[in-house]
Amino acid sequence: MANILLIDENASHRRSLSDDLALYGHIVTDLALHETGRALSDLACHTHQRPDVVLVDPFSPAVDGLLLMRLLCISSRRPVVVHSTGRGDDEIVQALRAGAESYLPKPCLASVVDACLSALLRRIPAASPPRPTVVGDLCIDVAGRSVTVGGQPLALTRTEFDLLACLAEHPGRVVPRSQLRTRVGHGVMSSASAIDVLVHRLRRKLGERRSDWQYLHTVRGRGIALHASAPASVIGGS
After folding, report:
1. What whole-number distance in Å separates Cα of residue 50 and Cα of residue 126?
2. What is the pTM of this model?
3. Looking at beta carbons, which pairs linking 101-109 to residues 24 or more positions away fall under 8 Å?
4. CB-facing half-sphere around the CA of 191: CA atoms within 13 A
């Protein structure tokens, strides 16, 4: 079993291949090619769970495929396999020299993809899970997608966890609301007020009082920061 990040602009292909690979026991996260920027941002963070392998079709008129390959290899620090169709020898050679581990023609049977990735991962160890982030009594375990406060588990929705995980990438750093909207909940946050509602819900679950924010702090005009306690420049409330 492998954790696979599948990047392809063809939504139908992504769904079909994801379903087929799941039958082989793999866990597949799929993204459209135009969403790769968000993936690069996630992969660059030490708290993010890295995939075991990246499977990507980087070729598109709107994308510099070779630059994308280099960025994926650098950010993920995981093997990247090109899975594309109609590529000439020169393009395949350039992709491999840009950092790809191998090339798989598209389309091909899921059994071939499974065999190729399995052979690749027999010689490359699986990605290590990120260490939990501890802020005061708050412990955020990205690998296990769990949060505890004072050792007690906290029941969070997917978007609530994603917000905490994003803030936990750099405790103490103010994260702009615009960045949170892009990263949290896979882009479902359509407005800044949606982030504020999410922060309010999290504060209630964390048992925070309005007069004494313990972990989530609003910096007026800038964004949200995760602190064990607020510095003097942080203004509580959202």
Report:
1. 9
2. 0.62
3. 104/55, 106/13, 106/57, 107/13
4. 3
- Written as six digits, the tokens of 131 are 């260490």
**Amino acid letter, 169:** E
Q: List domains and CATH numbers for the chain.
A: 3-123 (3.40.50.2300), 133-226 (1.10.10.10)
Q: Look at the alpha carbons of 112, 116, 122, 126 in this order and tell me if their dihedral is positive or negative.
A: negative
Amino acid of residue 170:
H
Chain centre to alpha carbon of residue 86 = 29
Buried b vs exposed e over 174-212: b needs ≥16 C-beta within 10 Å? bbebeebbbbbbeeebeeeebbeebbeebbeebebeeee
pLDDT band at residue 13, thresholds of 50, 70 and 90? very high
pLDDT surpassing 60 at residue 2: yes
Look up residue 3 and give its two tokens.
């954790």
CA contacts within 13 A on the Cβ side of 126: 9
